[in-house]
Amino acid sequence: MPLRIDRRDRKLLLGSAVVFVLLIAGAIIFGSESGPKQEAPTSYSTASGGAKAAYLLLLQSGYNVQRWEKPLTDLPKTAGTTVILADPMEAPTRGERESLKTFLSDGGRIIATGMYSGTFLPENDSVSDMLLGMTSKKAAAVSPSVITRAAPEITIAPQARWPSYSAAYSLYGDGDEIVVVKYPYGRGEVLWWAAATPLTNAGLKEPGNLEFLLACLGNTKSPVLFDEYIHGYREDLGSSVAHSPVRWLLLQFALLGLAVVATFSRRSGPLSAPVTDVRLSPLEFVQTLGGLYENAGTASVAVDICYQRFRYWLTRRLGVAFNISINDLEAAVRDRFAPKDDHFGAVLRRCESAKVDPYLGGTEALHLVQELDEYASRWKLFEGRRKEKAE
């Protein structure tokens, strides 16, 4: 049996499919646009800006290296532990800064790289400069140390600079632009790099960068933690999904699911006819007609219409001519309906004069129409008209 889909449901499904395709196309287009783009130096990434090669190299070389996917407030208090903060893109919380101070005071070491990494450090004089990081450049050693002895020159694409007049110990620079410094804090030590280039997949193979990285890490037995928490890799599934492209895929499926639910509920729900107001109902007609007369100031016309209608049904009931005079009509009514009613003749004469009175007021016109309607109800003049409509 072929599946039958309502035309409106088919339109809804087609619209949802178009939106779904547009989302996928947008993700492909904007996700693969050409030109330079920021690549996080995470140990999970194999891109040129990633750091998976450095992580695997250290692991295979016997270093005690591991990924850290917990908050910085949970850092171990083991002396000699090195934490690598590679190009963090979010500012630290107050609790994280205090935890890093305690970590350094207990003998820990921090390698912070990138333009925003200085905000994690207890002492920071770094100045961000995006123009510096457009291209890689050679940076020569400016001070003697164990690190500069191992690598007299490195290649780096600096995203920031450290002033030469700072109290920190300058290690590498290019003229007045200092790109690597170190300074002690408590029992620990801080190493600041202007960029994570030396530990990236592309930068690791540049002359001097590998030697520089190994010299910064020092003892192979000391724990080395690649902080992946700042790159969105969290131990709990919700946080990891929220910082990964999976959230966009889930959003697309959610939109598709809503379209399916809306289609099913509209097709399977109870049927109810919409309530529509009849615009030509008698009451609306009367209100509209009354408003026209009121705006036009023609109360005499309304009285004339009611009077002619009353006179037509009255003469028809009495069996007399329609153009009978008022006196004869009054006499016929007195003989047939109201032998002692002297007011009826006055009402008829007032209606005759009112229908040609351009200055007739609304109050008086309403009074005359009510008088005629009262007589018509008393003598049941319109009952024949109602019977004809019913038939």
List keywords for this structure.
alpha/beta, 11 strands, rod-shaped, 391 residues, 13 helices, 13% strand, Rossmann fold
Care to give the gist of this entry?
With 391 residues, this protein is an alpha/beta fold.
Provide structural commentary.
This protein has 391 residues and is an alpha/beta fold. It has 2 domains: 52-235, Rossmann fold (3-Layer(aba) Sandwich); 282-390, no CATH class. 44% of the residues lie in helices and 13% in strands. It has 13 helices and 11 strands. The strands form 2 sheets. Strands 1-11-2-3-10-9-8-5-6 form a 9-stranded mixed β-sheet, sandwiched between helices. Strands 4-7 form a two-stranded antiparallel sheet. A hairpin with a 2-residue loop joins β9 and β10. It is rod-shaped, with a radius of gyration of 47 Å. The two termini are 50 Å apart. Residues 32-38 have low confidence and may be disordered.
**What is the end-to-end distance?**
50 Å
What proportion of the residues form beta strands (DSSP E)? Answer: 5-15%
Q: Which CATH-level-2 architecture of the largest domain?
A: 3-Layer(aba) Sandwich
* CATH homology group of the largest domain: Class I glutamine amidotransferase (GATase) domain
Number of helices: 13
**Tally of domains:** 2
Order of helices and strands: HHEEHEEEHEEEEEHEHHHHHHHH
Compute the CA-based radius of gyration: 47 Å
State mean pLDDT (0 to 100 scale): 82
Count the E strands.
Answer: 11
- What composes the largest sheet? 9 strands, mixed
Outline type: rod-shaped
Query: Uncertain segments of ≥5 residues (pLDDT<50)?
Result: 32-38
Q: How do the strands line up in the largest sheet? A: 1-11-2-3-10-9-8-5-6
CATH fold field value of the largest domain: Rossmann fold
Summarize the amount of helix as a percent range: 40-55%
CATH top level of the largest domain? Answer: Alpha Beta
Q: SS-based structural class?
A: alpha/beta
